[in-house]
Design a protein that fits this description.
With 310 residues, the protein is of the alpha/beta class. The protein has 15 helices and 13 strands.
């Protein structure tokens, strides 16, 4: 099947979630490097984020991961695909979206499918720690492998961006700030969502090196206390970390609380040393931000999150 190229004879990569944090990062980095044309899909091509992406030089088209015929139509002729699905928006519906995406890539003859997935915590713990937002992505990965698609899998570390929302430090009675989750004193690998595309662009440019491989993307590797110390240093406000037992976190009651509690238990007890992954990420994308660099670049937003009503 002939592949789509633009006026500069560049092969086209289809990016799902192109107006979101992860897919948007991939689209931006691909456009900046200029080796590929970008076709971004979104459910709302008239949104401000879609318009901004179009202004950067991407083709933006309407498509939905729940619509297999349309997905195949917009993917037809594309050299590569970056696939990302959203558990927190669709929960169990993510599985269907991921399988639809894999089926479309198989049906349209994509040459390089880069797929954002995760390991199965449920399998690794023999059912002790179900983590649906990991486990569903692992099912999608297994399905892609079963079809022998030309795929590179990327597993992402904890987003630094979570400190702008879910885990922003909050002011406590003594006037200091504190954040809590069930990580204990174990180092937690993290990355800024905006840096993901810096590595993914290199993966697309070097298929012979990465096809069939799984890469874990890491921007920094710190203990929770080290995250807190960095927050204090950058903001000038005293920030500390307090471990919250898994059972207490799960009892918070928001949708997915048990899922997230089990995720941190997995991070705390079973995740191997991520230093080699950090070094590899920096090798592939030397500009990847440390947590301190990221925090300085997002200081204003972070301080707003710290001081906003909870």
């Amino acid at each position: 099947m002939p592949h789509i190229t633009d006026q500069n004879d560049r092969p086209t990569i289809l990016v799902t979630g192109a107006t979101g944090a992860q897919g948007g990062s991939v689209a931006r980095h691909l456009l900046e490097r200029g080796r590929f044309a970008v076709r971004g899909i979104t459910r709302n091509p008239s949104s401000p984020a879609a318009q901004a992406l179009r202004q950067r030089g991407a083709e933006v088209v309407q498509a939905d991961l729940a619509d297999p015929p349309r997905l195949r139509e917009v993917m037809k002729g594309c050299y590569g695909v970056y696939g990302v699905t959203n558990f927190w928006e669709h929960f169990e519906g993510e599985r269907e979206h991921g399988f639809n995406l894999v089926d479309a890539a198989a049906a349209t003859g994509v040459r390089h499918f880069v797929f954002s997935t995760l390991p199965s915590v449920s399998q690794l713990t023999r059912g002790e720690l179900p983590v649906p937002h990991f486990d569903i992505k692992a099912e999608m990965e297994q399905y892609a492998r079963s079809l022998r698609l030309p795929t590179t899998f990327v597993h992402l570390a904890y987003y630094f961006d979570n400190f702008l929302a879910w885990f922003a430090p909050r002011r406590v009675e003594d006037g200091t700030y504190r954040f809590s989750f069930p990580q204990g004193d174990t180092p937690l690998a993290g990355i800024g969502a905006e840096d993901v595309g810096g590595v993914v662009a290199v993966i697309f440019e070097r298929p012979e090196e990465f096809l069939g491989k799984t890469l874990y993307l890491v921007g920094d590797y710190l203990t929770p206390d080290e995250y807190a110390a960095t927050m204090s240093r950058v903001t000038g406000r005293p920030v500390s970390y307090a471990h919250m037992p898994r059972e207490d976190f799960a009892a918070l009651g928001f949708p997915g609380a048990q899922d997230v509690a089990n995720m941190f238990e997995y991070y705390r007890k079973l995740v191997p040393d991520r230093t080699p992954d950090l070094e590899r990420t920096r090798e592939l994308y030397p500009q990847v931000q440390t947590f301190e660099t990221w925090l300085r670049n997002h200081r204003e937003t972070f301080e707003q999150a710290m001081t906003s009503p909870s």
